């Protein structure tokens, strides 16, 4: 009888101390912490050049200038060919000049989220984010994480 009582006491003591030593095994305890899907950290801020667009205005101006220059070359049929070639070459050059004039600098903020996904957000002006800042996705952009 004493050995049965001692065994029961030992089992009770083991159960009580085991439950206290490992609270994660208690019923209703969530063993895995929830990850904020919209929270992350800035991993870098870089700049990039975005190529501008050329439109009809640049092509027209370049084409007119090229035609005028081409018209100064040769005579007769050669002059006509040079005028057409100058207009085509000038239109292409005008488009490229306008593209270069419309090129702009943008800032790209690289974010690694707590769920290991990554994203890049582009800003037209220098953002206030620095590498290491905690951020939260908000709409189509990011904001500082207040937590």
Q: What's the arrangement of secondary structure elements?
A:
Blueprint: H1 2-21, E1 39-50, H2 56-70, H3 77-101, E2 104-113, E3 118-123, E4 134-138, E5 141-144
Antiparallel strand pairs: 1-2, 1-4, 2-3, 4-5
Care to describe what's here?
This protein has 147 residues and is an alpha+beta fold. Strands 3-2-1-4-5 form a 5-stranded antiparallel beta sheet, with no helix packed on it. The longest helix is centred in the middle third of the chain and has 25 residues. The protein is rod-shaped, with a radius of gyration of 35 Å. About 15% of the residues have low confidence. It is found in: Membrane. Keywords: Membrane, Signal. InterPro entries: Bact_OM_lipoprot/Surf_antigen, Gly_zipper_2TM_dom. This is Glycine zipper 2TM domain-containing protein.
